[in-house]
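Entry for the shared binder. Reason: the reviewer on the internal report wants the predicted structure included alongside the sequence.
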Amino acid sequence: MQYRNLGKWGLKVSEIALGSWMTDLNGAAAAETARQCIRAAYDAGVNFFDCADAYSGGEAEKFLGAALRGYRRSSYVVSSKVFFPMGRGANDWGLSRKHIIEQLDTTLKNMQLDYLDLYFCHRFDPTTPIEETMQALSDMVAAGKILYYGVSEWSPVQLTKAFSAVKELHLRPLSVIQPQYNMVDRYIEDEIVQLCAENGAGIVPFSPLAQGLLTGKYRKGQPLPAGSRATHQADRQINNLLTDENLTKVDELARIADGLGVTLSVLALAWILRLPQISSVITGASKPEQLESNIAASGLRIPQDALDEIEHILNYHPFVRKIG
């Protein structure tokens, strides 16, 4: 495993991180598999574990905290997020000072930790001034409850306003962002990557395999694999990606991966890591074998001729999409 700095800051994170978004905690067998994934990740050198208060209504935080408790606190980096409703009250959601502080305390209790390494605003809150949110997060750094803070899925305009508020109010820095980024969703390349480079913020993208599209399990003209996400996902995000255009790209990308002697998923992760602004890639794993495959992307450098061919296949053009 190789490690990178979090943007310009001193914290080192593993190039491959393990996220909790898709962690299945339904039943003893599923929970044991999830524990095995965390153990295998740690043993392989993964030191960054991502979570959120909204994942399984706080149960994912409790599970991750318990799974990491046997390791030295200094040996791992753990994050969580705040924004989505955690109750029915008017102040049980969003990015107000009240909700951030109260929910952070709940997260620390859930994980049985004294502090979080990273804390993210899960989405943008249009009902709260950015200055209030940034001040609250900066104060939590000063209080020692979090070490670094950032945001997830904010637009370039929202990010610009946040960076400006930090400078104008002389706050602790906004150090990291967690956007969606993969071969078929490259919107951050238009403005956000440069914004982060200018402000020293690291980028730790999620959904690097585009809901499973870039694993290669979905192929043109073939039935959906039994038990795959496309057969049961409620919001059908992966199904919306299974277009003829995308599946043609998958076939062509798989050919390049074969030529390099790696799987398509490893190629897709290494392709993200080609950008120096990327600090770590947040991956999911439903079993240890998937994790082992993901870890193979750390340190892999894709030859320039292959990068050029990938660029031709992807044929990316800047576009506008809803963020968040």
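Summary line for the report: The beta strands are 3-5, 12-14, 16-19, 48-50, 77-82, 116-121, 146-151, 174-177, 202-203, 281-283.
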